Each structure stands twice: as C-alpha cells, then as structure tokens.
Amino acid sequence: MNWRVLLMDLHWISMNGYIKWDLEKQKKSAWTIRKKPICLSIVKAKADVKKEDIVIVGAGIAGLGTAVSLQWLGIGSKVLEQAESLRIGGTSLALFKNGWSVLDAIGVGSQLRKQFLEMQGQEVRAVERRILLETLANKATTRCHFFLLKAGKHPHKGKWKNFIGTSRWYSVICSGFFPDGQPFEPKVNYIYGKGIRAGYVPVSSTKVYWFVCFNSSSPGPKITDPSVLRQQTKELVRNWPSDLLNIIDLTPDDTIIRTPLVDRWLWPVVSPSASTGKVVLVGDAWHPMTPNLGPGACCALEDAIVLSKKLADALQYKTMSVENAFTSYEEECWGRVFPLTIRANAVGKLLQWDNPLVCSVRNNIVIPKLAWLGPVLDYTNFKFELLLTN
Ligand SMILES: Cc1cc2nc3c(=O)[nH]c(=O)nc-3n(C[C@H](O)[C@H](O)[C@H](O)COP(=O)(O)OP(=O)(O)OC[C@H]3O[C@@H](n4cnc5c(N)ncnc54)[C@H](O)[C@@H]3O)c2cc1C
C-alpha cells in the first residue's frame, strides 16, 4: 500500500512502515465505526491505493475537519482512529468566530449553531465535543472510512522529547444538567482564586458546562470515582458562589472528568517542522496549547481548511508539489499558532497565580481592563480563502 499523503493529528504514530488493514471489510461509502480494532501490521509498500489517496490518522477535530474540507474540494481521504469510538470526553469546547467561520465554510455551521447558545456580545458558543465530532463524521460521507488503529510511535518523538513539559495544573471538567431548564444568562462566568479558578457557561437550554482548574505539585493517584471527584472539587471551591456549587451538584456522575493540563512548547527554528516528506501534522499534534484562551479546537479547524486548500492546489490544480503544499501550509499557519501557544500559556500562568498581591492586581486591574479592551480575542479574526466546490 503506498499512501501518497499521510496527515496526522495525533501525538504518537509510527511512520517506519505502512499500515495494513482488512480491505475486504471496508464499506464502500459512509463511515464505519467498528467495535474491535482491525488487525494492524507493518508491511512493505505496495502500490494498491490510488495515488491521490490521503490518509488522515486520528478522528479528532483536526482530522475530521480536514476530511470534510477535502471532501468539499472533491478530494477523498481515509480516516484512521485508534479508539473504539469518537472521543466524547472533555464535554464542551468554547468555539469562537474563527472556528465558526470554518464550520460555515465546510457546511456544518448552521446545523451546530442552532443547538448551542450564543454568548452575549460575540460569536462564542460552548459546543459539546461529542456533537461536534459526530456532526463532522456524519458530514464526511463520501470516500471516507472509519478504522480502528493501535497507537504507534510518533515520527518526531526523538526530536520532540525536549519540548514536552508538564504544567502543574489540573482541571475538573463536566456539564451540569438541568432537566427543567437552566437558569443562567448566556455569558461566560469566571471566578478567580489563588492558584485556582473556575468557570461555567450555559451550553444549551438544559446544560451548563463548568470547570475548576487548580495548581497541584504532583499528579497524585488517578481518581475515576465520580463521587470522590465531586467531593474533592467541592472542597476546593467550598466558599465560592452557590451557583457554581449547585451546578456541580447537578452534574451527572458519568460526565465528571479530571485531567492534567500539559503544555508543549513550540519554538521557531529549534522545533521540528510540521511536515516531513509527505507526512504533515495538524491540530494538537503540531501545536498543542493549554485551553486558557480556548483556542485549540478553533486552530485545529483553521489548520484543516488551510491545509485542504493547499492540497487541492497540489493535487487538483498541480500548481505545486505536495511537499510544497505542506510547507506553504506550515508557513501560513505558523504566524498565528506560535504567538497563540505562548499567549495561552502566559494567560494560564497569570490566572493560576497564587501570590495574594499579584492576584489582587490581576483581579482588580488586569482582568477588567482586558475584558473591556478584548485584545486577547483578536486572534479569532481569521481570514481564509473560501472553499469553492462541493
Ligand atoms: C480541558 C480542556 C479544555 C479545552 N477547552 C477548549 C475550548 O474551550 N475551546 C477550544 O477551542 N479548545 C479547547 N481545548 C483544546 C481542544 O480540545 C484541542 O485543541 C482539540 O481537541 C485538538 O483537536 P485534534 O483533532 O488536534 O486532537 P484530538 O481532539 O486530541 O484528536 C486526536 C485524535 O487522534 C486519535 N489518535 C491519537 N493517536 C492515534 C494513533 N496512533 N492512531 C490513530 N488515532 C490516534 C485520538 O484517539 C483522537 O481521536 C481544550 C482541551 C482540554 C484538555
């Protein structure tokens, strides 16, 4: 099997060979979600896949977004996913206007918009990850297949090793469920403490997404029991506004998650390139960023549309090689994502500060001023060439 182009939106994958799957079991169209992983093995290259075939590894936001964008341009792809189903953890994602403009361009914006509340004053909606992924997966009906795949090694693992850092922040995230309707205004609510912060935002008429992010010097034991997580979270914010405590109480057990927030620095020149040969990284695999400004998913969608356009130029219009398309994609996106990874990390550090004096200046001067000026959201002004064909 000789895949001409391999896109990756995952963290660890092997490119020391080619991945084989059971072609007979493929369905000819539509997405196939399998219950058991398909046998994987490393085999020598064999030219039995059309030259223009594109393989996307990882059915996350970047992977599915790229599949739909390519499909919109008339280019087929295959999506390989290691998990047994689409990832549903992480409950909700704040999507800003850059994310929405991409979702509009690939034909799913209006379908998603009507399911989620718009925040006051700007195009921001908290969108359930599950629904976003399912919507993208359902849109990708032609020439896309869903496979299960076991993780391999990341091609850049050696190079990246020095750039993996772990922040000492932990986040508990989930959605409170109000069967009779949630009572909150459509706005994002933040509460800042010393070394801890929380937030909640209405997602829909019955759901309210919330998080508590706190400093921790060590990961501690893995806790999966929701009642323990709930209790610990309530302890952390025990004197905080009753609205927050109430939402935590109304959260279904199976949605409570605790996750470490990990940062990996991306530096000009020293960081490895996003592409090598005919392999390119998109989304978090290239530029993971802490969710302090909530930019990751929107950037993954930006990557998807920019990369698809470049690939269309290479594969359909033959104006450049695939390798040049990847380089051009990286150049176009780098200027946006690099400052954003730094800014997201810096904002996170400021918000997690535990020094009382710094916290006082932050809460009384910095945050009100930034909220008024709104400069932290200037990155959401994303302009791109519209996809022309469907
Ligand atoms: C707590 C938290 C809150 C966040 N909040 C926001 C927010 O409000 N707004 C926002 O825009 N972003 C937010 N983000 C960031 C956002 O979730 C990510 O930026 C986004 O999911 C990146 O999409 P992706 O497709 O690159 O990666 P992922 O969503 O991680 O998808 C990668 C996929 O690849 C698969 N995969 C991995 N390895 C392999 C392999 N070897 N073989 C096959 N498949 C593989 C995985 O199973 C997964 O399905 C948040 C993140 C966190 C952790």
Automatic annotation (TrEMBL):
The UniProt GO MF terms for this protein read: monooxygenase activity
Q: Does the keyword Transmembrane apply?
A: yes
Q: Which residues form the FAD-binding domain?
A: 275-333
What are the alphabetically sorted keywords of the record?
A: Membrane, Monooxygenase, Oxidoreductase, Transmembrane, Transmembrane helix
Q: Which residues cross the membrane?
A: 54-75
One protein family per Pfam:
FAD_binding_3
Q: Which family does it belong to?
A: Belongs to the 3-hydroxybenzoate 6-hydroxylase family.
Protein name from the UniProt record = FAD-binding domain-containing protein
